[in-house]
């Protein structure tokens, strides 16, 4: 590894999805402005895909300079397509790292796109700084990917002490791990708040009961994915509430979920589907909706900052510590209906266990 002496530290940040960039934006902006660092931003994956809402526009609108774009026609409809994409990324990563010659790579989370980046960084002897390690989500292959990336990594930034303890049990040294909190939660205070009347004109009438719904593939149970999404949609039909659906992610099965939701929305005028709300609009809606439904990590990590009731469906998030605003449901229509009914009556005030100031 290179000796830094007193020169600027060269950081290369890779981002492939709307979810992690939204959480990392404030940190990335700070690194760009900090005179101790030189930051190169590399963008690819679903950021560039119309299917998933072209979230590269959010990066451009953030006035964060993009230094490299990894272009690829992302259409994840089979395991083979995922493997082809990972092979492509592995080849591109080598060229990018040779071009920027970073002292450290910065990555967040548990997406499969990060594995080829970690592989190449390891072979090239470039240290990895990993955000959001030490967590557990037993219902998805993300769980194995996250732990694998943690073992590739040299510096860890985790949300709380429990996650630090887990990394130490995995053999990571104490001095390499900082309990920093989830970085996206600090960004919530910077969100430009929009009037509820304005949001109601753009989406649905938020002065009526409204649910924000995000459902992603459960990558260890994709064989029953169609039954899962059909049970959710059938349960929602039982309630006289407005529903804002956000697009599923770029995992195998995401397109199936989105297609089912689009058909449902066409038949129900109290519902809308938005591929990608963006961080600002998403958090404006979190402030005004009555509940969240689905299996997104934001229901576990971010909703608590709004004291928002959450119906967490299935086992995709199993293993993540939860606040008392979360009600867990199985995949059956009956249980989903039961938990939505309870959530609509629930009043909570909780401390977000994922937040650390500064």
In short:
The protein has 358 residues and is α/β, with parallel strands linked by helices.
Report on this model:
This protein is α/β, with parallel strands linked by helices and 358 residues long. Helix 3 packs across helix 4 and helix 4 packs parallel to helix 5. The chain has 13 helices and 13 strands. 39% of the residues lie in helices and 16% in strands. Strand 5, helix 5 and strand 6 form a beta-alpha-beta unit. The strands form two sheets. The protein has a seven-stranded parallel beta sheet with strand order 3-2-1-4-5-6-7, with helices on both faces. The protein is globular and about 65 Å long.
Topology, pairings included?
Elements: E1 9-15, H1 18-33, E2 37-43, H2 56-61, E3 68-69, H3 79-100, E4 104-108, H4 114-123, E5 128-131, H5 142-152, E6 155-158, H6 161-169, E7 177-179, H7 183-187, H8 196-202, E8 210-214, H9 225-236, E9 242-246, H10 254-267, E10 271-274, H11 278-288, E11 291-294, H12 297-301, E12 310-313, E13 326-329, H13 333-345
Parallel strand pairs: 1-2, 1-4, 2-3, 4-5, 5-6, 6-7, 8-9, 8-11, 9-10, 11-12, 12-13
Helix pairs in contact: 3-4, 4-5, 9-10, 9-13
Low-confidence spans: none
Count of helices?
A: 13
* Strand fraction: 15-25%
Q: What separation lies between the terminal Cα atoms?
A: 29 Å
What's the total count of β strands?
13
Mean pLDDT: 93
Q: Which structural class matches the secondary elements? A: alpha/beta
Largest sheet properties: 7 strands, parallel
Helix content: 25-40%
Shape: globular
Order of helix and strand elements from N to C terminus:
EHEHEHEHEHEHEHHEHEHEHEHEEH
Radius of gyration: 20 Å
Strands of the biggest beta sheet: in what spatial order? 3-2-1-4-5-6-7
